[in-house]
Amino acid sequence: MGMARRWWALLAVFYLCSLQASGRHQRRALYPAAHWIKRGAYSLIDPTFLHSEEDSKLLYEILLAGMQIRGEEHNLLIPDEELASLRSVKKLEVICEDVLPKKLSDIRRLMAELADRRQHLSWQDFERTVLTLVYTSQILAQMSDQNQKELWMEAMVQLVRALLRDLKPF
Question: Which of the residues 2, 19, 25, 60 has an alpha carbon 20 to 30 A from that of 9?
Fold first, then answer.
């Protein structure tokens, strides 16, 4: 009887440890920078741009106007001054400048985490993944080195696959 109790106790400990580990894995942030406050005057925690259909239309207009997310300078460029001056665009600037991964290594980390994901993305993570895809496509268009171009192309393909997989029911 003592051996059976030890066996069940060992199984219980193993089960609890595996639950705790899986819980940590599911709570790991895809975009950890979204939870850091970086701006003094315009501090946002977990910023999100899209809250309504009007926001979706505005993002479409901004993208159509030629929005550019620049890498190392961390600048968001919106050629249309009227669109760029809108108050709601400030959140988009924070997301693009402070939250999105800009280095290929960071984007590859994101791709690995997206590939391991067994649940749908939150709305915020879906939005950020789409914006990361926009950034990746813009970087790819500027690449001249063939090896770098292939690496960025693979990143873009993986992001598209992750978004398509997220749109399918599990």
Answer: 25
Task: Output phi, psi for 77, to 5 deg.
Answer: -115, 120
Q: What is the pLDDT at residue 23?
A: 45
Place of tokens 């595996």: 18
> How many Å apart are CA 134 and CA 53, to the nearest integer?
20
Domain boundaries, the chain: 1-30, 31-167
Model pTM score: 0.76
170 Cβ partners below 8 Å, 6+ apart?
A: 118, 119, 120
SS3 label, residue 77: strand
- Mean pLDDT estimate for the chain: 80
